[in-house]
Amino acid sequence: MNASQFLRAATQRLSGKSDSPRLDAELLLAHALGMGRSELLLKLRDLEVPSQFHALIERRAAGEPVAYITGERDFWTITLHVTPAVLIPRPDTETLLDAAVAHFGDRPPMRVLDLGTGSGALLLAALDQWRHATGIGVDISQDALAIAQANAERLDLASRAHFQKGNWAGGIAERFDLILINPPYISSHAMLPRDVLHHEPHAALFAGEEGLDDYRRIAPQLPALLEPGGMAAIEIGFDQGRSAARLFEQVGLHVRCQQDLAGRDRCLVITP
Predict the structure, then answer these.
(1) To pair with 160 at 20 to 30 A between CA atoms, which of 15, 126, 198, 200?
(2) Residues 87-139: pLDDT tens digits?
(3) What is the largest CA-CA distance in the chain?
(4) Which residue range is the domain that position 14 belongs to?
(5) Quick one: 32 and 104 in the same domain?
(6) What's the CA dihedral at 196, 28, 261, 115 to 10 degrees?
(7) Are residues 197 and 162 part of one domain?
(8) Nearest CA to 24 among 52, 75, 59?
(9) Closest CA to 125 of 115, 138, 112, 139
(10) Tens digit of pLDDT for each residue in 20-68?
(11) Do 43 and 89 fall within a single domain?
(12) Where are the beta strands (DSSP E) in the chain?
């Protein structure tokens, strides 16, 4: 078979096992060939399929996420290294950065705090967006912090990003212009796709029966962390617009909800 035929066969193998079988097959073949997807599609007729491609497709068919197989995930303007120690960054999370860009306009934030940094996605994307900003990423997982630090070094952002172990903002006395938070917010009773449930870290997903446990921990800490004129962008589940917002309003903060590209509630925009 030529490369096009291999891709068709791989797409058929992944049908019913992935929501995007053709895309997954293309990404995995590009990874096996050591090139980007765009280059793959341009050169497809001239390529030979490496022997390891079949094994990659079988891993995906068994439910392993593409990002963990390839070790990479694009997010905002950067590409991140990811492993099963960290949550895979989602396009929906870019809503937080959209909200920050709209808030600051031509007045860039100088200090950024990323609570629950994981792979470093939000902090490093913010530092790539605002080239004079510096920031701190906090996570309770030492494995996640090691991945975030490595990502900062790969992106040449290590001089502006500091990572430290912590339980949300406990012990942080500084104030920040921009605070970015993607906490666990899934109910412990929720049904999740198998590739999420069986592969991604549960500590980064689940937050009690209502999915609100971590918002309750974060809300009392937030007023002392925000600079006047600053903002926090906090990811929420599509049905948590009111329940999560109420927790931050109760500590005297102003809250509005921003939708993602699908029109679902996705981000609390919080100001002093």
Answers:
(1) 200
(2) 999 999 999 999 999 999 999 999 999 999 999 999 999 999 999 999 999 99
(3) 64
(4) 3-62
(5) no
(6) 50
(7) yes
(8) 59
(9) 112
(10) 999 999 999 999 999 999 999 999 989 999 999 999 999 999 999 999 9
(11) no
(12) 72-75, 78-81, 111-115, 134-139, 161-165, 176-181, 226-235, 254-259, 265-271
Residue pLDDT, tens place only, 157-202: 999 999 999 999 999 999 999 999 999 999 887 878 878 888 889 8
Domain count for the chain, please give it: 2
Question: Which of 264, 271, 213 is CA-nearest to residue 243?
Answer: 213
Name the phi and psi angles at 135, rounded to 5.
Answer: -165, 175
Q: Quick one: pLDDT at residue 200?
A: 87
Please check whether residue 74 lies inside any domain of the structure: no
- Residue in the block written with tokens 């999915």: 211
Q: Tokens in use for 144?
A: 């996640």
State residue 8's pLDDT score. 96
Place of tokens 């999420």: 196
180 vs 218: CA distance, rounded Å: 12
CA distance 90 to 119: 12
Under 8 Å between Cβ of 180 and 114:
yes
User: Do 133 and 126 touch, CB atoms closer than 8 A?
Assistant: yes
Both tokens assigned to 19: 């929501």
pTM of the model: 0.94
Q: Does 117 share its domain with 185? A: yes
Contact between 95 and 267 (Cβ < 8 Å): yes
Q: What is the pLDDT of residue 195?
A: 81
